[in-house]
Amino acid sequence: MTENASNPLNHSLSRFVGTLTVEEIQQILDLQSQPLPTGIRINPLKTDDPAETIHALAEHYGWQTQPIPFCENAWTIQSAQSSPGTTIEHRLGGYYLQDAASMVPVSLFDLENPHPLILDMAASPGGKTTHLIDRTLDRGFILANDGSKSRIAALKAVLANWGGANFAVTNYPGESFGDWYPETFDLVLLDAPCSMENLRPTPNHPLRETTRDERLRLKDRQVQLLSSGLQCLKVGGQLVYATCSLAPEEDEAVLDALLRALPHNFEIVDVSQKFPYQVPGLTQFEDQTYDPSLLHALHLWPHITGMSGFFCALLRKTAPMPSQPTLPPTRDFDRTNLRRLSDSEKDHIAGIISVNYGLYVSEVLEYQGLELFGRHDQTFLIPSRYLSGFQTLPFEYIGMPLGRKIGEDFEPSAEFVSRFGHHFVQGIIQIAEADVPQWIAGRDIRHPDSSLKPDGQYLLVTDPAGRNLGLGKLHPKRLRNMLPRQSIG
To answer: Residue 80: which of 56, 99, 61 has the closest Cα?
Structure first.
């Protein structure tokens, strides 16, 4: 540990002398020269068979993959001939690239209710929120909140691209939700702001040196956030607390502080059977002793898991908590200019989609718990649970755009076609393999080879392998490219 002592990693590791053996510290140092495998989660909203999809992707792009044992629909890419971050499937939300350690928190929830009410307290950039959408198949309503205004745009973009509809994005301090909505949510995810002291830095998250004062300041806020999360959780509900830091001050010490303050209100659930590695939480660090139930948490040392360092724990609320209910911010819903469509308007739009694509909108609405609303010439899928429980809470983004009326015609949104295209039975045009690169690059296809009569119709574009390539409009001499600008490479 004396060599290059100014290295932030060496500084961080020096704190764990006595907690880790010399051999374990050396194993962590040896890991730094090994690239971290890319984790990938297949989007189950956009395929009927994620296992078949990963097989097709691996074959098409020359990937070697390995299943992640603790996470459904997830693999690591051990080697790749084509970068997984540059494909059309990635740009259209067919999968999410995520460190395997970041998949642990959402994997810990036990989901018995098919329509849970979920609060994601610090949601940006949205990876774990998309995982929550996956685990409920977009049938549970998610309030995806982030306290930082600057992070909201990224969160909105990720969720829109993923194809979820049963969510609303909000921008409020997470500390407020406990008093605003006591005993309300079935599930709460708190991926808390932290120092990111994970002992296995990546290009996106280089390790930096942290001070004791910084860690203790973070702990104070984490305790406040966790207390708020527990307050707004129903009795019997579940909360996952997670950080991408291995600093005990931000992990075990936070939970220990709440256990001391609220010894009869929640318990830490033993999740050792859910995870294939023995990585129990700490019950002692330096001069601090923590509650014995911290052994039920997961302290994900990188030399044991092969992943980035991470901490997470599954909590179950066992009794009501004291709170000081206050009113949340309000806005008259009419000010959003969204209005519920009349039965005749809904029937008209549903009829067009049924005729054009063979998809029955009424079945989608019923299964997903969504309603049709309009604003000017646009139509949206809006979550019923927002309307019944949070209708006056101002949001930054909500639901999914379905499309817009153009005279008597209806243009489906790119998000709708990307999400539901694999259910279409008609309204599909297949372009030649030779035309795929220019389509992906955002260019129109001149004189496409198709038996369809060009009539300005909006079509799902596929290639000979059946891949969803987004929305196109067929004119007499060209297939107009309608991929979203941000989805064009």
So the answer is: 61
pLDDT exceeds cutoff 90 at 13: no
Please provide the average confidence, as pLDDT, over all residues in the chain: 93
d(CA 365, CA 360): 9
Alpha carbon distance, N-terminus to C-terminus of the chain: 45
**488 burial class (0-12, 13-18, 19+ CB within 10 angstroms)?**
middle
Sheet holding 428-430, edge to edge: 428-430, 457-462, 468-474, 478-481, 445-446
Residue type, 222: Q
Residues 197, 232 contacting (CB under 8 angstroms): no
Q: Which residue has the tokens 């739009």?
A: 349
CB atoms within 10 A of CB 6: 7
Q: Could you say which of 71, 194, 232, 244 is catalytic?
A: 244
The pLDDT, as a whole number, for residue 32 is 85
244 counts as catalytic: yes
In angstroms, the CA 59 to CA 63 distance is 7
In tens, the pLDDT along 249-291 reads 999 999 999 999 999 999 999 999 999 999 999 999 999 999 9
Tokens linked to 242: 């997670």
Q: Please indicate, yes or no, whether the overall pTM of this predicted structure exceeds 0.85.
A: yes
Residue type, 457: Q
Between strands 288-289 and 428-430, the pairing is: unpaired
Residues in CB range of 91: below 8 A, 6 or more apart: 161, 487, 488, 489
Domains belonging to the chain, first-starting first, are: 35-97 (3.30.70.1170), 112-317 (3.40.50.150), 335-406 (3.10.450.720), 427-489 (3.10.450.720)
C-alpha span between 299 and 104 (Å, rounded): 11
Closest CA to 74 of 96, 59, 91: 96
